[in-house]
Specification:
The protein is mainly α and 202 residues long. The chain contains 10 helices and no strands.
Length: 202
């Protein structure tokens, strides 16, 4: 799929999500975000977050996954639109972010930073979080496509959280798992997936 086609898919997805968000009361759209052992009340992200003490790299804009994916229950594929069709999950364009933030959160200082990027027609240069060895390939599409099996039966956000950790509770994203070879092989063995070297090293 070409970049233009992927961008079009991302834009259409963004428009659909905006319509769904605007026409649905947020509190009725929220689902329980706790482990079965925890309280099943909808998640409410903290209003103020001091990023100085948080793990993970500081980003040009503090994108609150705990608000977007946690409190508002946005599907991971809304922003990471290529996750099912590409090796890379994809990052949203500034125009995709502005699909919502042309109105939503206008007074928020982080949204104001986003608007500066928009007005200057500059892309956001996000700091890389999940760093793999240059000899390793991790095709996201292979890991999230629906098939039979324990892992494959999970909802998309649960699949993402297998490697990315409790993303719905992270104000600032950080690398949760080691992502080292032994960690990956343990999962492959558990899911009865090939551990041949050429599966990841090609």
């Amino acid at each position: 799929m070409t970049r233009r086609a992927l961008a079009a898919v991302g834009t259409l997805t963004a428009l659909a999500a905006v319509v769904a968000f605007v026409t649905t009361r947020p509190e009725s759209a929220l689902r329980a975000q706790a482990d079965p052992a925890q309280d099943q009340a909808p998640y409410k992200a903290p209003v103020d977050v001091d990023t100085a003490g948080l793990p993970g790299p500081v980003q040009p804009i503090l994108y609150r996954h705990d608000v977007h994916a946690g409190e508002y229950q946005m599907d991971c594929r809304y922003c990471h639109f290529a996750v099912e069709v590409s090796s890379s999950a994809g990052l949203p364009t500034v125009s995709q972010c502005m699909g919502c933030h042309i109105i939503a959160g206008a007074a928020n200082p982080e949204v104001q930073k986003l608007r500066e990027y928009w007005n200057e027609r500059r892309p956001i240069e996000w700091a890389e979080i999940h760093v793999l060895s240059p000899f390793v390939r991790f095709p996201h599409s292979r890991h999230v496509q629906s098939e039979e099996g324990s892992f494959k039966d999970l909802e998309i956000v649960e699949k993402c959280e297998t490697c990315h950790g409790p993303i719905r509770r992270m104000p600032q994203v950080y690398q949760h798992a080691s992502l080292k070879m032994g960690w990956c092989i343990t999962c492959h063995e558990k899911e009865d997936v090939s551990t041949d070297c050429t599966v990841c090293h090609y």
